[in-house]
Specification:
The protein is about 65% helix and about 10% strand. Among the domains are: about 180 residues, Rossmann fold; about 110 residues. It is an alpha/beta fold. The protein is elongated, with a radius of gyration of 57 Å. InterPro entries: P-loop_NTPase (IPR027417), YhaN_AAA (IPR038734). This is AAA family ATPase.
Length: about 850
């Protein structure tokens, strides 16, 4: 059945409203109070009738408040034909009419014919579920699902269920185990009272008791003789029958000798052995899989040994050295920049004099030179004073600029570095031009040219004019300072290069030609690899322990199953699977031979042949027949004698009862016993009929049970991304098997996974039963707890279900709008 169109005349908040269910699955969205539940109740009510408004159903009628119209219609497609089902206000669920595509109309009977055995309760139990059903998934049990399977597996099961209820009602009107007012209960109680009264009456006569004992003994003899007679009569009839069949049996035995099948296993034992073979092979396969996994883990383990704790510590030490060398490298870079500036300044000083510069003079040497040059103290003092002030200012400017330059380099502040360099350079240039001006002054008169020249040669000043010797001392001093600083930078560089060379020697060859940054990155990678390797080792250790436990359990199961299988093999006198296969072939050949033998002995049943085989020849059979006839004659005489004794005892007992009370009580009890026997037979007849119907219903649906489980397993695997592979309905409840063969009860699963299991079972049931009961599947907000990934899988499954059944999904989750699916938006209809 597929619902194509819906028209609501008036139902709850909806009135004069049309819906087209063109999509499949049909997704209907609406927030709370949008009318989803009302629409869903309308669909069910049109098919199965309006609620009667009594008890808990008083709020389930959805009688509209804004219109007098109540009801509507559904256009449905059944087996390729369209039918218009219309239901309006009326008694017993409303007045219904059914119109087919040819214009023919019908009523309630026509609708029942279309719906078949389906009613409201069965439909809501099988084809409709919502979030409330999913939250109660922990209460799922095997009996409920088997009941659903039984109801749909047998055609007309609703009528059979009604007949069962009728028989049970009739049986309960006769007898209930704890009742008092029912006829059989009252008769049993009266029978016990009569028995007590009879026992009291019998206690009056001692002779009566003796006679009663004799009567019981004779009655026992009679019953025993009658029982023996009953048992011997069939035996005698059987022997007479065998005596008549002996000529046929003799001819059959002469023409063909059937091989005995007594040494072969039963069909149940063969089936059990084959099942054990399959389980044994599966366990062996799992053992091999675990062994292969252990081998894989062991093969991977040696690769992690290169990351031992000692090697990780060495890598950590090298990393720390790389960090220190990087800091030293940055310092060397800054010093080299400063050295380049110093070298430029030194070059400018050397360029200024065009000759190699000697060492600067000491203060004493400067005083001696002044004396030789005959510089007046006052003039020298004035000159010194004039030169000292600018020289002191110049030194302050140079030192300040140098300090700013160093601070800028250390702080990585380019602006401060530039300011410091400019200040130092400007101060040097100022001092240079000032000294050039002083050179133009008249040279002091010399008093001793030879002494001055000797002083100049001694101190390396002979290449310069004597009047510049004193003036150039500042440059000579700066030259010496710059040379010393450059030498210090060179020594620091050599020390750094030595440390770097030692560090490179400690590195692996593959890292020796890389930069410190690259080396540091590689060392970080090696540390991460080492840590990952240790984590892998720990994970492998845990996995090996788990596998070992699983292997131990598998070995136990394998040993148990192997022992069970070998026990059956021992009965068949075989020792392995190959011999068992040959045994089955021999067994099949023997069965074929037995069938061929039956064709020759069609006049003899298997029971007749077995009975005739007990006699070696015809004379032995005739002897047994004569003996049975003699025993039957003796039993007949015994019964006749017992009857005579019983009659005598009863006559004497009757004579002992003066007032006739005992006789009346016994007669009354005998009449009551007959009545009880009739009532018990009637009660048992109802009970046996109920059991027969239940067995018939189970037999009619048992072939669908495995198919439903297989289909549900496929859906459950799809919803869980194949994390679970099997579903088992056991006496303990519903269980699932995970991909690693771990078994979980429903109570052990997460709420989302348990809901997925429930949905898989429900939809698997619907899919398998769609050939006998194809109805729309209605889902009311069934996936609230699902994330986007699970919701996508669920929608994909609904599309698969929609290939056979119509799917109508109601939801208030606005996230459905973000998915690429077609929806029917109730909010967009703008209905109050």
């Amino acid at each position: 059945m597929k619902i194509k169109k819906v028209h609501i005349d008036g139902f709850g908040k909806w009135h004069d409203q049309d819906f087209d269910f063109t999509a499949n699955p049909q997704i209907i969205y609406g927030p709370n109070e949008a009318g989803k539940t009302t629409l869903m109740a309308f669909l069910v009510s049109i098919l199965f009738g309006f609620a009667d408004g009594r008890g808990k159903n008083r709020f389930a009628q959805y009688i509209p408040k804004t219109t007098s119209s109540y009801g509507g219609s559904l256009l449905v497609e059944i087996n390729g034909h369209d039918y218009l089902i219309k239901r309006q206000r009326g008694r017993n669920g409303g007045k219904v009419s059914v119109t087919d595509s040819q214009g023919r109309q019908g009523g309630e009977q026509e609708l029942k014919h279309l719906l078949g055995p389906m009613d409201r309760s069965l439909y809501q139990a099988l084809f409709s579920f919502g979030q409330r059903d999913l939250t109660a998934v922990d209460e799922l049990n095997r009996e409920e699902w088997q009941q659903h399977l039984q109801q749909l597996g047998a055609v007309g099961s609703a009528q059979w269920d009604q007949l069962i209820s009728q028989y049970q009602k009739h049986a309960d009107q006769l007898y209930k185990p704890r009742g008092r007012k029912w006829p059989l209960n009252q008769d049993l109680h009266q029978y016990a009272d009569l028995t007590d009264k009879i026992d009291q009456a019998r206690g009056k006569f001692h002779r009566y008791q003796d006679l009663q004992a004799n009567l019981r003994t004779n009655e026992e003899k009679l019953r025993q003789a009658q029982a023996d007679l009953t048992n011997h009569q069939p035996l005698l009839q059987k022997l007479e029958h065998l005596h008549q069949l002996w000529p046929v049996y003799h001819e059959w035995q002469s023409s063909h000798q059937t091989q005995s099948l007594a040494d072969y296993l039963t069909d149940q034992q063969v089936t059990t052995a084959q099942e054990l073979q399959v389980r044994e092979k599966e366990l062996h396969r799992q053992q091999q899989a675990y062994q292969e996994r252990l081998t894989t883990i062991d093969h991977q383990a040696p690769q992690a040994t290169k990351h031992s704790p000692q090697s990780i510590q060495e890598i950590q030490r090298l990393k720390e050295q790389a960090v220190e060398l990087q800091a030293e490298e940055a310092l060397q870079h800054r010093q080299q920049t400063q050295a380049n500036q110093w070298q430029q300044e030194l070059t400018r000083i050397k360029t200024r004099y065009y000759h190699p510069l000697p060492a600067p003079l000491t203060p004493q040497e400067k005083a001696e030179l002044a004396r030789l040059l005959n510089v007046q103290p006052l003039s020298r003092a004035n000159t010194s004073q004039a030169n000292s002030d600018p020289s002191r200012a110049a030194m302050i400017g140079i030192i300040g600029g140098f300090v700013l330059f160093i601070v800028g380099l250390l702080a990585n502040a380019t602006f401060i570095t530039v300011i410091g360099a400019i200040a130092a350079f400007a101060t040097v240039m100022y001092l240079y031009y000032q000294r050039q001006g002083s050179h133009s002054a008249p040279a002091p008169a010399t008093t001793d040219s030879q002494a001055i020249m000797a002083f100049g040669r001694k101190h390396g000043l002979q290449d310069f004019p004597p009047d510049q010797w004193l003036l150039m001392q500042g440059d000579l001093q700066r030259n010496a300072e710059l040379a010393a600083q450059l030498q210090s930078v060179k020594q620091d560089r050599q020390r750094y290069d030595h440390q770097l060379a030692i560090f490179n020697q400690q590195l692996p060859p593959i890292l020796q030609d890389l930069t410190l940054t690259a080396v540091r990155t590689k060392l970080n990678d090696l540390l991460e690899q080492g840590q990952q390797a240790r984590q892998d080792i720990q994970a492998n250790t845990r996995e090996k322990a788990t596998i070992a436990n699983n292997l131990a359990q598998l070995n136990q199961d394998y040993s148990k199953i192997h022992q069970q299988k070998m026990a059956i093999y021992q009965q068949a006198r075989v020792h392995d699977d190959n011999q068992f296969t040959q045994y089955l072939a021999n067994r099949s050949a023997a069965q074929s031979q037995a069938l061929a033998s039956d064709a020759y002995g069609q006049q003899l049943t298997a029971e007749d042949r077995q009975a005739l085989a007990a006699y070696a020849n015809k004379d032995e059979l005739i002897t047994a027949l004569s003996k049975a006839r003699h025993q039957l004659d003796q039993l007949t005489l015994t019964i006749s004698h017992a009857h005579e004794e019983i009659q005598k005892d009863k006559v004497e007992i009757d004579s002992l009862v003066e007032d006739g009370t005992l006789s009346n009580l016994e007669q009354e009890r005998a009449n009551l016993a007959a009545k009880i026997w009739h009532e018990v037979q009637e009660w048992l007849r109802y009970q046996l009929a109920i059991q027969w119907i239940n067995k018939a219903l189970v037999g009619a649906s048992v072939d669908r049970y495995p198919a439903i489980i297989r289909q549900a397993e496929q859906y459950f695997a799809l919803l869980t991304a194949h994390r679970y592979s099997q579903i088992r309905l056991t006496a303990d409840g519903v269980k699932v098997v995970r991909r690693d063969q771990e078994i979980f009860l429903v109570e052990e699963l997460s709420q989302g996974t348990a809901e997925q299991l429930y949905i898989a079972l429900r939809l698997g049931f619907v899919t398998v039963m769609s050939d006998q009961a194809n109805f729309p599947v209605i889902i009311d907000d069934g996936f609230v707890n699902f994330d986007n990934v699970r919701r996508q899988r669920m929608l994909a499954l609904l599309e698969k279900i929609a290939e056979k059944n119509q799917v109508i999904y109601f939801t208030a989750d606005d996230r459905i709008k973000d998915l690429d699916v077609k929806i029917l938006d109730l909010q967009a209809l703008k209905r109050e």
